[in-house]
Amino acid sequence: MMCELIDSFSAVLPLCSPNIQREFLIPRLATIGVSNSTIQNKTKRRDITERLVNAYKAILCSYITPDTIEHYVIPGLQALSTDCQEVLPDKQQTIEVMLREVMAKISP
Question: N or C: which end of the chain has fewer CB within 10 A?
Answer without folding.
Answer: C
